[in-house]
Amino acid sequence: MSNILAISDVHVAFGGLKAIDGCTFEVEKGTITALIGPNGAGKSTMVGSIAGAVSLTSGSITFDGQEISHLPTYRRAQGGLIRTYQISREFGGMTVLENLLVVRLGQSGESLINAVFRPKKSKTETNALVGEANEILNTFGLYRLRNEYASNLSGGQKRLLELSRAVMAKPKMLLLDEPMAGVTPALIEILGQHLLDLNKGSGMSMLLVEHNLEVVDKICSRVVVMATGKRLAEGTLAELRSNRDVVEAYLGGEVHERIGS
Ligand SMILES: Nc1ncnc2c1ncn2[C@@H]1O[C@H](COP(=O)(O)OP(=O)(O)OP(=O)(O)O)[C@@H](O)[C@H]1O
Ligand SMILES: [Mg+2]
Q1: Closest Cα to atom 17 of ligand 1
Q2: Whose CA is nearest to atom 26 of ligand 1?
Q3: Under CATH, to which class is 3-88+170-259 assigned?
Q4: What pLDDT score does 260 carry?
């Protein structure tokens, strides 16, 4: 099995604070790999570094065989590396459907030129895009809300929209930073199943930052544990449950509650 993502001795500092302090790990192609660890471990900073929003102090990041750490975010996204945020970032003034369409119109950069100079071609392309978007909205249970303004959606529906937008971009790999945060238990179940279906259906790789270990247990085949900016351990959740370092660093006093042993 080959890797889709390789993080090699990455350092990130914010002023004097070492948010990532020599972190190395890999994500195998076609897997959902979890990135867990205590608050402030550097997980979101790692996701930002992989996506291109945070600059490395040193180290390298290879995605799909290419060194990407010098590339701007949009180039990484064009290459198939798409992130979602800890807090949803939909366009509130656009409808749900439009929120999906702009993902791809923005991606090609061609569509505006087509709309002006080749309106017929543009119309066919737009119809195809609308078809694709509707199909994704249907999968995520948002089809009936397609003409609703995104700002009118509930928190849970915004999560589904965020995921739909990410899928619309046809990523090779999704970076998900706490997609279940602030979501009801029923929706957590549904979101987890959607992620699993996407992974099984199209082989989409994912790196999932998640505090909810039940979700991790259900959908992730590998788990990377970060603490104080470093990779502390790696394995299946079952293996990690019996790892003393992990239990102590990650879970401290709440060990038994959180890791379920
Ligand atoms: N933009 C920033 N400027 C300065 N310090 C930052 C910045 N972003 C993160 N940090 C600091 O870097 C460290 C790692 O933060 P990060 O958000 O990556 O942790 P995390 O593992 O995602 O935590 P959580 O589980 O709470 O989301 C923390 O000490 C945090 O305060
Ligand atoms: Mg975080």
Answers
A1: 44
A2: 39
A3: alpha beta
A4: 46
